Amino acid sequence: MSYTTRAGRPTDEPGEYSYISQEKFDAMAARGEFLWEARAYVNRYGTRKADIDAALESAEHIYMPVLVLSAVKKLHEYAASIGKTNLLASLYIRIEDETELRARFTERGDKPEEAEARIIECRTWNEEAKNLGVPFIYLEAQKRREDILTDALAHLKEVGIQ
């Protein structure tokens, strides 16, 4: 579970986020609870190190959506430092079409100014992902979400994660 200062959206997966106040987020950050933190537009996001440790110790496969490239790199570096790299598979959904990206942001309820700010941020992501040094499984976003999910599951099965 990641923690965020934003309000929930209808498109959020159940259990994907814990929605907390800015004050609580700041207190958790000050205590050093997060393995990674990020800011997207005006919202803050973070994932607690304790939650990542528990997930990496679990025999279950986990799904953790991380939309910040530097956080994915940090997660891989952390897993390597504790000998758990074999438990990670990172998917990167490449999207080139800003019209499609804008439509997806609008569909999930982003305000127009938030959507435009995110599009500006996203313009460099494909190149950054390529140069990050993370062994991504690349998926193309110019498909329906259901088809992207089917592709993702097929790729995970190929690397032994079911």
Give a brief outline of the structure.
The protein is an alpha/beta fold and 162 residues long. Helices cover 45% and strands 18% of the residues.
Total DSSP helices: 7
User: Main sheet: which strands, in order across?
Assistant: 2-1-4-3
- The backbone outline, from C-alpha atoms, is globular
Approximate helicity band = 40-55%
Amino-to-carboxy terminus distance: 20 Å
Instruction: Estimate what percentage of residues fall within beta strands.
Output: 15-25%
Radius of gyration: 16 Å
Q: How many β-strands, per DSSP?
A: 6
Alpha-beta classification: alpha/beta
Largest sheet entry: 4 strands, mixed
| Multimer state | single chain
* Average residue pLDDT: 84
Q: Note poorly predicted spans.
A: none
Order of helices and strands: EEHEEHHEHHHEH
Structural commentary:
The structure is a single chain. The protein is of the alpha/beta class. It has a domain at about 90-160. It is built from 7 helices and 6 strands. The chain has helices spanning about 20-30, 50-55, 70-80, 100-105, 110-120, 125-130, 145-160; strands at about 1-5, 15-20, 35-40, 45-50, 90-95, 135-140. A 4-stranded mixed beta sheet has the order 2-1-4-3, sandwiched between helices. The chain has a two-stranded parallel ribbon with strand order 5-6. The chain is globular and about 40 Å long. The mean pLDDT is about 85.
